[in-house]
Amino acid sequence: MTRDCRASRRTSGWAPDRIPDQSGRLAVVTGANSGIGYVTARELARRGAHVVLACRSHERGRDAVERLRAEVPGARTELRLLDLADLKSVRAFAEGWSQDRVDLLVNNAGVAMVPFSRTTDGFESQFGVNHLGTFALTGLLMPRLLAAAHPRVVTVSSEGQRFARFDMANLNAEHRYRAAFAYVRSKRANLYFAMELQRRADAAGLRLRSMAVAPGLTRSNVLTGGANSARGRAYRLLTRLLLRIAFRPTPDGARTTLYASTVPDLPGGSYVVPDGLLQLRGEPVLRSRERAIRDSVTAHRLWVLSEQLTGVRYAL
Fold first, then answer.
1. In what order do the strands lie in the sheet with 271-274?
2. Which of 61, 140, 235, 264 is surrounded by the fewest CB atoms within 10 Å?
3. Which residues are catalytic, by number?
4. Res 188: pLDDT
5. Pair 296, 3: CB distance under 8 Å
6. Share of residues in the chain with pLDDT > 90 (%)
7. Does pTM top 0.85 for this prediction?
8. Do 201 and 153 contact (CB within 8 A), yes or no?
9. Where are the alpha helices (DSSP H) in the chain?
10. Which H or E run contains 54?
């Protein structure tokens, strides 16, 4: 796995209009009905990729497909239902896959700082959706990914992962639950997963490239939609005001994901973040000095636990 020895490597003013032709690529984007996922799906389709929008809601997913086709006439796109909070749904998605391969999997879907709840399978919702659902989906699609000539997996983490206290004994809210702490732990788990996937692919001599990204401060309904809609009106209004004042537009937040998804020579194991103060805004850069990137011991422990909890074992 190639690493840059500096804290970050600049990308020479990269912008989405520099995305190369994506014709012939088959991409899956989870949580693609809105926010960063929608922008990612739209821009991949704009460059010629066949994009599958993997969404939990049929109605919202259908509306997103119609909107995308209106914005990108001739786009090759389709909707498939996927609920990462339900492992039965994850298995159904993978088992129902009718194409011979997956060239690109963008693990974008997630929830953020929601009130305590559990998934269909009994996992704390943020750990269950953000990490375990993503882990299971990627593993179940692995045979399709390995059938591609240049398979790539991009997993959306968060700049907040840097502040996580990663307690292996409390990943599933076995003890005290605090929404913000559970969220950043789940995002640290995303980074551990992406790096460990690359280590295992390298050890097996596979062409698979696994990357992680952090979007920075972005206006997205991950903080206002979904499970957060159950919060009070004052919370929703305050959150929307904060998003408008301090957070950048969604297309800017999608830049790191699009960079990781499309730059041809990007090495596996890359962690792409926004440049600038606290990695919150700016152009995509490669960040190498993150504790989770080098912590292979914790990443391995999390991998083993994730296999046990989901029942999904990787074909690596």
1. 8-10, 284-287, 271-274, 209-213, 152-156, 104-107, 26-30, 50-55, 76-81
2. 264
3. 183
4. 97
5. no
6. 75
7. yes
8. no
9. 35-46, 58-71, 87-95, 125-126, 134-146, 179-203, 233-246, 250-253, 255-262, 291-294, 296-310
10. strand 50-55
